[in-house]
Design a protein that fits this description.
heterodimer; A: mainly beta; 6-stranded mixed sheet; 11 strands; B: mainly beta; 7-stranded mixed sheet; 4-stranded antiparallel sheet
């Protein structure tokens, strides 16, 4: 099983839609979880951390399910500018911050 | 906002040559990382570095690779004898802490092309 797995998509949605991505991880000892956004040929940029109790930042909501070892990202009211690849990142061991990335989910928001 | 800076933005080299990729991490960060991304593929971990030594390295980071923090600000990745398959985007990252919710901050990358 891969360390971090994501549905590659692509997800093509109209503006204003709600879209959700999932990411599963293999190491039950992982403690740190993040969502990054990557635009074409650019560096990953931190979108949000994922807290145990779930957290929200504007239109974005992140959830963690430790029992099933997955994290999710929900984007409400999609904007054209949300078009990007979304990467989940999970640390490789419980006591470090060496992050492993999923292959990313490509989102295209259309007018 | 402080940022990680990388130079050069693009490096073209011939197979078998040595290259050094440079990074200046965020000044109060203590943990440094190199990742690479082959075009169209995922971001892959290469190495992490703390307190002037390697903390962890992946199977990609073989004897051809080395890292160094030659002074108080730079963090370098050296590839001793480049191969065609080393062509990729190389990202440097830094973080303040090594645990908990201390995210990695990435530089804008060096595109390495090996011909």
């Amino acid at each position: 099983r891969k360390e971090v797995e994501q549905d590659p998509g692509p997800f093509n949605v109209p503006e204003g839609a709600t879209v959700a991505f999932n990411c599963t991880y293999s190491n039950s000892a992982s403690q740190s979880f993040f969502w990054y956004r990557q635009d074409c040929r650019k560096e990953p940029k931190l979108l949000m951390s994922v807290y145990s109790s779930g957290n929200e930042d504007g239109r974005f909501t992140a959830q963690l399910n430790r029992a099933s070892q997955y994290i999710s990202l929900l984007i409400r009211d999609s904007k054209l500018s949300d078009s990007a690849t979304y990467l989940c990142a999970v640390n490789s061991r419980g006591n470090n911050n060496d992050m492993r990335f999923g292959a990313g989910t490509r989102l295209t928001v259309k007018p | 906002e402080p940022e990680v800076t990388q130079t050069p933005s693009h490096q073209v080299t011939q197979m078998g040559q040595e290259v050094i990729l440079r990074c200046v991490p965020i000044s109060n960060h203590l943990y440094f990382y190199w990742y690479r991304q082959i075009l169209g593929q995922k971001v892959e971990f290469l190495v992490s570095f703390y307190n002037n030594e390697i903390s962890e390295k992946s199977e990609i980071f073989d004897d051809q690779f080395s890292v160094e923090r030659p002074d108080g600000s730079n963090f370098t990745l050296k590839i001793r004898s480049t191969k065609l398959e080393d062509s990729a985007m190389y990202f440097c990252a830094s973080s303040e802490l090594n645990r908990g919710l201390s995210p990695l901050h990435f530089g804008n990358g060096t595109r390495l092309t090996v011909t």
